[in-house]
Amino acid sequence: KAGVTQTPRYLIKTRGQQVTLSCSPISGHRSVSWYQQTPGQGLQFLFEYFSETQRNKGNFPGRFSGRQFSNSRSEMNVSTLELGDSALYLCASSPVGMNTEAFFGQGTRLTVV
Amino acid sequence: QQQVKQSPQSLIVQKGGISIINCAYENTAFDYFPWYQQFPGKGPALLIAIRPDVSEKKEGRFTISFNKSAKQFSLHIMDSQPGDSATYFCAASRADNDMRFGAGTRLTVKP
Q1: Rounded to whole angstroms, what are the CA distances from A40 to A50, A87, A101, B48?
Q2: In B, which residues are within 8 Å of A105 by CB distance?
Q3: Are residues B92 and B99 in contact, defined by beta-carbon separation less than 8 angstroms?
Q4: How confident is the model over B47-105, as pLDDT tens digits?
Q5: In terms of Cα–Cα distance, which of B101, B80, B81 is closest to B35?
Q6: Strand A10-13 and strand A64-68: pairing?
Q7: How close does chain A come to B14, measured CA to CA in Å?
């Protein structure tokens, strides 16, 4: 069974640009959550989608948004990039939600210059 | 957002020794407590998890001890090996699907 796939693995963007990250969950999993990981702040919850609906949202500005498609694949978008957005962005998939077994992808390393 | 406190920040253990990492949580609504292991350049991997109706769960060399009244839980790694050297995260989540992570513990197992 294939794991969680995140693309691209690495990205370098310029301040002010926007970026879209993609996550393909494990087959059959309907819940996709996104996290930002930085050395200073650790793992911080961004949002969670289930059956194309955002069920929960963390404490991030509106520049961070996401969506989920009917095949459970998810994308997150960050607009007007800031230097502080440089981080590892992780996607986790689970059958029904993050209070059950959740599996992470390898992440997308975003560098904003 | 920090609702799960993890200690120690770093831990050095000799091969064959016991590694112990502790976590404390605040929100009594949490009902699922997993531990994740992360190697450099990789995403976190689910190691073991427990629910609050159980006080202990063991899988191989890894054991979670859970104290509901104290709102604390810990990970014990028995017979620690150099290959266990990684960063470990405790986490807590609840039915509305918001999982909170501890700050992480960098474990080094010396040969």
Answers
A1: 29, 10, 26, 25
A2: 43
A3: yes
A4: 999 999 999 999 999 999 999 999 999 999 999 999 999 999 999 998 776 789 999 99
A5: B101
A6: unpaired
A7: 26
